[in-house]
Design brief:
homodimer, 271 residues, alpha/beta, Rossmann fold, 6-stranded parallel β-sheet, globular
Chain lengths: 271, 271
């Protein structure tokens, strides 16, 4: 199979780089074809601005979604963005690897999402009707492919546990897993998260590397997080609210959007 | 009082810019002193990299937290970052205004956080002991000041409601409100969120502008979101997990970290 790994760390000799190399080596050992987008090494432009839409009239107000829509339709996206879209279409699986900075992805990776996720490609896809609200959340351009986060965090695992002060890691990653990966159609796998990485010694590294190798070996086998498909009947249209009574046990917040009846939901999907 | 508004939108003639001008005008009409950091207009550098730490030895591996710590302690942060830190210390209140892109802030604003939130300034502050775990989540350099988000979203308000497919807006903003603003000490106010902004007509704009003026008039009066102070006795140390039994009604996920006994928690704090 084909795997794209998008990598966001500024230091070529970092723990993150070492883990990336472990992942790539294991994937290749399994016979997969791997491409890496190394955002820092490639000097990725982080911010969305007028330069992203060279065909947009200079005297016209920049409406980002409209400009993105026109540029995608007309093939006038910049070459760096077009190349990433081509890689996403090529890959059977996408891995985003990054250090968790301020409970979110680093700016350069957010800028990859903001720029590469063009209107007509990652959003603004499909029809709106009484039965459908676009192809998103389980449907879309990237449906049938898999995606997974590989994350490092400085804090303790307990601090990211269900009662931890940082908030549960699954909730903190929900805007990415559900909002960025599930949205355009990916089946989203439970994330790989390494904690307390600032205190890693050689034994910690080797144990984490071995866990990561295991996750790479099961990349195409492990059950995805059982998010509910938007157009699958669980949500009201057009309010897009979960219909009453679908949750089996008390859930609030993000946990509502898991299909609790699925086998995968019985096992807590992360950390 | 003194207010800093950090603004992240690429188009000078956008709805966001118009709302920003409404907010600034109302704050000034109330007698406040206002400074604006316009990230796009100022060409803000979004990504953290080695250039942020000019005193860090060129032949040494870049460890971001350590480099940030040294640069803050030794006064060798770059001038753009140092200027923002000075503004944060100057301001009694901070407003972050941005369009919600992919359920998070635009990359350029995330890069403002990643770069300006230096070690020793916004994190790595205070002692760790059996009774304290650093000055954070309710304590820290910026304690005593207020912070608030002003956000625009393309989607419908119902889609961000407690059962909405996007996830509840309060949970989606938790990594920012709690993880970025409450962490270094800010009292965090309920956010101002405008929905369906891509469909705004003049009447929508004027109604939203009037709501925003109201929020600006009460900037120093409205009750903050009642997050639990980390070192206030509600959390175990060092696991930083909420002690059992503190929640009054069933809550999971981010809602656990609200003090449900407070008056402010009775009113749902957003949207």
């Amino acid at each position: 199979m084909k795997v794209l790994l998008v990598f966001a760390h500024p230091e070529p000799h970092s723990l993150n780089t070492a883990l990336r190399d472990v992942a790539v080596a294991e994937l290749e050992a399994q016979g997969h074809e791997v491409r890496v987008t190394d955002l820092y090494a490639e000097g990725w432009k982080a911010q969305v601005d007028r330069a992203d839409f060279p065909a947009w009239p200079a005297d016209q107000r920049l409406a980002v979604a409209a400009a993105s829509n026109a540029a995608f339709a007309e093939g006038t996206l910049t070459s760096d963005v077009a190349a990433e879209i081509e890689k996403l279409l090529w890959a059977d699986a996408l891995i985003l690897q990054f250090p968790l900075w301020w409970y979110a992805m680093p700016a350069i990776l957010k800028g990859w999402v903001d720029r590469v996720y063009a209107y007509g490609f990652a959003y603004g896809v499909g029809e709106h009707s009484d039965e459908r609200w676009g192809d998103r959340f389980g449907e879309g351009t990237l449906a049938g492919k898999r995606a997974m986060l590989v994350v490092t965090a400085g804090g303790w695992e307990a601090h990211y546990s269900p009662r931890g002060v940082n908030g549960p890691i699954d909730d903190l990653l929900f805007p990415i897993n559900h909002g960025i990966l599930y949205y355009p159609g990916y089946d989203v796998l439970p994330p790989f998260v390494a904690y307390r990485v600032d205190r890693f010694g050689p034994a910690d590294f080797e144990a984490t590397a071995e866990d990561l190798r295991g996750r790479m070996r099961t990349l195409f086998d492990v059950a995805p997080i059982p998010y509910r498909a938007q157009n699958g009947g669980d949500y009201l249209i057009p309010s897009m609210q979960l219909k009453p009574g679908l949750e089996r046990h008390a859930a609030t917040g993000f946990a509502l959007h898991l299909d609790q009846g699925s086998a995968a939901a019985e096992v807590k999907p992360a950390a």
